[in-house]
Design goal:
By secondary structure, the chain is mainly α. The chain is about 75% helix and about 0% strand. The protein starts with a helix and ends with a helix. The chain is globular, with a radius of gyration of 15 Å.
Length: about 110
Amino acid sequence: MLFAVALVAVIYFGFMTKPSLPRGLKQIGVNDLMLHGLGFAVLSFIALLGAVRVWLIILLLLVFAAALEISQIVQPHRNVGLDDFIANLIGVGIGWASAIVAAKILARHS
């Protein structure tokens, strides 16, 4: 359920909405690339925590990141950027590393 919510949020903010940050986020120094990374970090953390087929999920996340960027070609208010895609990939890596750390911590306490 949590994965579905994260997936819908990434799709909504990555494809459907106009690319303008709320004023409050701009004031604290958050930019668009940080949000790309954060969205994919959360999505991949949830997907990978306790996953058995990690490499398949990583591959699907990378394909999803690319598809999301490419799909923005048809959106008049969006633009495709290599920097956005790289931020997505970094987010997947951060989520993956976080899932590994969380799994080790959970294994110690079980």
